[in-house]
Design a protein that fits this description.
mainly alpha, single chain, 112 residues, 77% helix, 4 helices
């Protein structure tokens, strides 16, 4: 159910509810609307994050599969560690950065 339909449904419930329940229903409706708006902001932030790929393939061209073995051998020979170790380091840094970005986005989304 999209936000507009959810709000329309809540408004409908208010119109058919008994007079003495209207205040509680209005409070609940406002809480639901706030949650829907927060969810919408989260979705927009996630879409924004997805669209900001800092490594587009037209600039950072893909590496052919057969080159990974060569890179692994070169790293072992020259640096003393395999490609997995370097990949793990890069992955941890990326994960840490992603989590920080998501936390910032959630904080921003909760400001209604």
């Amino acid at each position: 159910m999209n936000k507009k339909k959810a709000i329309e449904f809540l408004e409908y419930l208010i119109t058919i509810a008994d007079e003495r329940y209207n205040e509680d229903i209005i409070k609940k409706r406002d809480q639901v609307i706030d949650l829907l708006e927060q969810g919408e902001k989260c979705r927009q932030n996630i879409d924004r994050l997805i669209s900001k790929n800092p490594y587009p393939e037209d600039i950072f061209t893909p590496i052919p599969k057969e080159d990974f073995a060569k890179i692994n051998d070169l790293l072992k020979k020259e640096m003393g560690y395999p490609l997995d170790r370097l990949s793990g380091h890069i992955g941890r840094e990326f994960h840490k950065s992603l989590i920080e970005t998501l936390k910032e986005m959630l904080d921003e989304s909760s400001k209604v």
